[in-house]
Amino acid sequence: MTLSVTNTLTGAREEFESHGDEVLLYVCGLTVSDDAHLGHARLWMHADLMHRWLEYEGYDVRHVENFTDVNEKIAARIGEADLGDDEATVANHFVSDVIRDMRGLNLKRAEVYPRVSEHIPEIIDLIETLVDRGHAYESNGSVYFDVSTFDDYGKLSNQKLEELESHADDGERSEKRNPTDFALWKAGAVTPETAAEHRHADLDPLTDPCGQTWESPWGDGRPGWHIECSAMSMTHLGETIDIHVGGRDLVFPHHENEIAQSEAATGAQFARYWLHVGLLQTDGDKMSSSLGNFFYVADALDEFGVDVIRTFYLSTAYGSEQTYSEETISEAEERWNRLERAYEAAAEACDSPDARTKVESETLRTAVAETREDFRAAMNDDFNVREAMAELLGLASAVNRHVADVDEYDYRALREAIETFEDLGGDVFGLSFGASGDGGDVSVAEDLVQLVLDVREAEREAGNYERADDLRDELTALGVEVEDGEDGATFRFE
RNA sequence: GCCAAGGUGGCAGAGUCCGGCCGAACGCAGCGGCCUGCAGAGCCGCCCAUCGCCGGUUCAAAUCCGGCCCUUGGCUCCA
């Protein structure tokens, strides 16, 4: 069974073939001009799921994910409270927040998180190569890529050069030869006028040029937006990578330009598979910083927890748009609860005296085997995580049925079900099965809850149901879910 | 205007590449029943789908072809 992926470059589903046993994966990362929101996290999450699945299938994944820490929007925030007085300090502030968020989301670490500010020499080298080869030219201290020298321009986004030119605004005199040329190097610092466009309205405008500049053969200046990804990708993964992942909103111009400048410089194919993640929608628009309709990752983690958030992202295939709303997130919450409860039910059944090694449930055994097989087929079908999740939920139903239907449990099958939850749900999906406790206080808390339940049980036996219900309601309000069963009450923390 | 991705039940969202197992998955919401002192969870069952519209191909179309309508994203580094 082989993996097939939808490649934006060809617009078709293709069988994935890595260049070898390892997979070179580049993720077009975040511009650190603010904290990350759930839209950014969706990209990271799907890159993470791809990473995990490729490893599960036996590949050695070399995952590189950049931070763009040189940008007008970052410079525009200089001087804001607690952010710092220079571009690097502002960027560092957000980088550390983002790393905190990534850890919170239980993302697998990338091999490298390269930053633009640390790759200026490589960027300058790459631009020089392009100038030497006649693909770029200097103009007033800036350097532009000459689109007319790259025949394949537009191959990713299917844009026609003539069409782009006719719609480009060329009313003013430009230092570019052609309206579709794009900047590789920009002379000077960020001007106050530029910064003002990204400055928060309630803050004083900056009066002096801001942001870092670096020396270059063309004078002091800053790198253009697109060149960084080419330089960092080549530095850490070589001329040709296997998979390039990014948001669908970046297909044009960003990724198109990456291809042009990279392939013009090396003559080699830049990325073999281009995978684009659909955008997160809220109220019919994409979630974005500029629209102000976003939800910070950190806040979402506080409110819902990592497993609910991961389950949320697991309910839509990466290539589709996904809708964020209170309803869709609470659906994810229910899905995750259902999975976790089934897992706990399996664990409890295993530990109970009714579990027998000599009992054989054909239906449960078949269900476990089919879950593993169908899960794998779904993931290999262009990383269809929702379908794969449906299989895991199917296993949850099978476990619940088994526990509900029979008096003696099939110990071995239950163990295999538990392992399946842990392998597929835990290792591949990054959900925390079996990791209930999250601190030393938990055991004390558990003892206290048990004490309350003992008191409540006494009230029930005495027929004082009102008192018993009050105790249960109060526990529920504290986030302790109580369930009465045949052998007394059990509980779990929300 | 151009490019791209979509339009599937109350919601959400698979399936569309490779037409038949789709009388449309998984789930959420809703409604019955079992269980329970009650509730929850779980189990069983039900409800809700002219698969955007029109036409075509085919024994057969959510799936292929053509046209149209609508939604989302992008159309560049600062004019």
Please explain how this structure is put together.
The chain is an alpha/beta fold and 494 residues long. 46% of the residues lie in helices and 16% in strands. It has 16 helices and 17 strands. Strands 4-3-9-10 form a 4-stranded parallel β-sheet, sandwiched between helices. Strands 5-6-7-8 form a 4-stranded antiparallel β-sheet, with helices on one face. A 3-stranded mixed β-sheet has the order 12-11-13, with helices on one face. It is elongated and about 90 Å long. 40% of the residues are buried. The model has no long low-confidence stretch (mean pLDDT 91). It binds one RNA strand of 79 nucleotides through strand 2, helix 5, strand 7, helix 6 and helix 8. Keywords: Aminoacyl-tRNA synthetase, ATP-binding, Cytoplasm, Ligase, Metal-binding, Nucleotide-binding, Protein biosynthesis, Zinc. GO terms for molecular function: ATP binding; cysteine-tRNA ligase activity; zinc ion binding. Residues 374-441 form the Cysteinyl-tRNA synthetase class Ia DALR domain. InterPro entries: Cys-tRNA-ligase, Cys-tRNA-synt_Ia_DALR, Cys-tRNA/MSH_ligase, CysS_C, Rossmann-like_a/b/a_fold, tRNA-synt_1_cat_dom, tRNAsynth_Ia_anticodon-bd.
List the helices and strands and how they pair.
Layout lengths: L3 E4 L4 E4 L6 E10 L6 H19 L3 E9 L3 H4 L11 H18 L15 H13 L3 E4 L2 E4 L15 H7 L14 E6 L4 H7 L22 E3 L3 H11 L3 E7 L3 H16 L4 E7 L2 E3 L2 E2 L10 H8 L1 H8 L8 E2 L2 H26 L3 E2 L5 H19 L4 H21 L3 E2 H18 L12 H21 L3 H13 L2 E6 L2 E6 L1
Parallel strand pairs: 3-4, 3-9, 9-10, 11-13, 14-15
Antiparallel strand pairs: 1-2, 5-6, 6-7, 7-8, 11-12, 16-17
The protein binds one RNA strand of 79 nucleotides through β2, α5, β7, α6 and α8.
